[in-house]
Write a structure and sequence with these properties.
The complex is a heterodimer of chains A (254) and B (187). Chain A is mainly alpha-helical and 254 residues long. In chain A, 66% of the residues lie in helices and 6% in strands. Chain A has a two-stranded antiparallel sheet with strand order 1-2. In chain A, a hairpin with a 2-residue loop joins strand 1 and strand 2. In chain A, helix 6 runs antiparallel to helix 7. Chain A is globular, with a radius of gyration of 20 Å. In chain A, 43% of the residues are buried. Chain B is an alpha/beta fold. Chain B has 2 domains: 30 residues; 145 residues, Glutaredoxin (3-Layer(aba) Sandwich). Helix content of chain B is 38%, strand content 17%. The two termini of chain B are 42 Å apart. Classes of the chains: A mainly alpha (254), B alpha/beta (187). At the A-B interface, helix 3, helix 7 and helix 8 of A face helix 1, strand 7 and helix 6 of B.
């Protein structure tokens, strides 16, 4: 756990600092790798910029709609910078809807846009894992393995570090795919990334000590990640014939 | 990967990966009681809140375990800390509105604060919820408080549901967390 860095009178919470730095890093990464995904850099930059803004607004709006009483009593809280007042699912849905509409107007299908933005997701995945490692959350189950970490009275799997390592491997795999392949049909970057990430998540979720579980013992994370993995593999498989046809022509729009 | 694999090989590989994932999910099913069993008190979400016994501003003595059975919002603060001062009115309003349903406790970092200044500040702002004095800094050390304010949301069973480092917290955040505390986060 690395909660705070003190720089004179300034105290910087490390987990939040990691998130902000990874946001900047991922944004730059997405811009630099955009061309290789088949999407112009300007489209990726604009889409990301507005997508993040709309996503944040949607996340706050959904949170307000979930707890209207709390905001009726203190309306100014709507503008609070507290990240605890955001609904992540609402934010993702809002950003996705925005990108879909925004892309339609510019002649880019959503999947093509997602291809361009995938390096951003890959960078943020590393940052999110490091955020959890710094915050002490996402800790693992008890174990006697030699690399276990001592965590509040027990030796445990360093699950946040496993996730960071796998996320880094996924980032490298993505880099290799972009470096060695020509742009394919819409989804050629996004679906493999989603399949790798869902697979990594399924593995890590099984070792988590702070997982949400149902009465039967099933982990909620597994029940979400398994269908996502199946969908991503199925869609990746569907890229095969079209992928060969398109791979010979380097181009942006599908 | 798909570029160097035939469709048949890819499907075989994907099918195997999916079956392995389902089996892994099946074998790692764990009842909540097993996940939480044997956890020592620690200042972290999901762990039992460590015990603390401190003098109060009124001159009495208070123990955290005496509050078991009611959700607790435990706020570490100091009178010289600007965000702590800013979030005090919101904490006071929550204390007034949810009296009997949730207990708000302010732990003053008396080791690094002036008790008289703290008392004056509380009187000026009309703060009436219990204030405990961490005179020797033991509670701050046990709860690993390294930044002010730091707030622990503890459910009725004594499990820490969330830790918020920094502030000021919005009033709506406190109100939504009260609802979540009442639902509880213990297994």
């Amino acid at each position: 756990m690395l909660p705070v860095i003190s720089l004179g009178p300034l105290q910087l919470p490390v987990p939040q600092l990691v998130l902000v730095l990874s946001l900047a890093f991922s944004f730059i990464l997405a811009e630099r790798w955009a061309r290789r995904t088949g999407v112009p850099t300007a489209v990726v930059s604009d889409g990301l910029f507005w997508g993040i803004l709309v996503g944040l607004a949607a996340a706050r709006l959904m949170y307000v709609l979930r707890y209207p009483e709390a905001f009726r009593a203190s309306p100014l809280s709507v503008f609070s910078p507290n990240p605890g007042l955001l609904d992540p699912v609402g934010g993702l849905v809002g950003a996705g809807l925005f990108l879909w509409l925004w892309g339609q107007r510019r002649g880019y299908p959503l999947l093509r846009l997602l291809d361009g933005i995938t390096p951003f997701f890959a960078g943020m995945q590393v940052g999110l894992a490091l955020f959890h490692a710094a915050r002490g959350s996402y800790f693992g189950m008890a174990t006697s393995l030699p690399w276990a970490v001592y965590f509040f009275g027990e030796k445990r799997h360093p699950t946040a570090l496993y996730w960071a390592a796998l996320a880094l491997l996924i980032l490298l795999a993505l880099h290799r795919r972009l470096k060695t392949s020509r742009p394919g049909p819409p989804g050629w970057v996004f679906w493999p990334f989603l399949a790798w990430s869902a697979g990594a998540y399924v593995f890590i979720e099984g070792l988590r000590g702070d997982a949400r579980v149902l009465g039967s013992g099933w982990r909620v994370g597994h029940l979400v990640a398994l269908p996502v993995l199946a969908l991503a593999l199925w869609q990746w498989d569907r890229l095969h014939p079209a992928g060969r046809a398109v791979s010979s022509t380097r181009g942006g729009r599908a | 990967m798909s570029e160097v694999m035939t469709p048949f090989r890819f499907r075989a590989f994907a099918g195997l990966a999916l079956v392995a994932a389902v089996l892994w999910a099946w074998f790692t099913r764990t009842p909540a009681e097993v996940l939480y069993r044997g956890r020592l008190p620690a200042p972290l979400a999901g762990f039992p809140a460590p015990e603390m016994a401190l003098p109060t501003l009124e001159g009495g003595q208070a123990r955290l375990s005496d509050l078991r059975g009611t959700p607790v919002i435990l706020n570490f603060w100091a009178s010289w800390c600007p965000p702590c001062r800013l979030e005090m009115p919101a904490l006071q309003r929550v204390h007034e509105e949810y009296r009997g349903r949730v207990v708000v406790v302010g732990v003053n970092m008396a080791q690094v604060d002036s008790i008289e200044q703290a008392r004056t500040f509380l009187q000026d702002r009309g703060v009436t919820f219990p204030i405990w004095l961490d005179v020797r800094g033991e509670a701050a050390q046990t709860y690993q408080v390294v930044s002010l304010p730091t707030t622990f949301f503890i459910d009725a069973q004594g499990t820490i549901c969330e830790v918020v480092v920094g502030g000021p917290m919005a009033e709506a955040l406190l109100r939504t967390r009260v609802a979540q505390l009442e639902a509880g986060c213990s297994p």
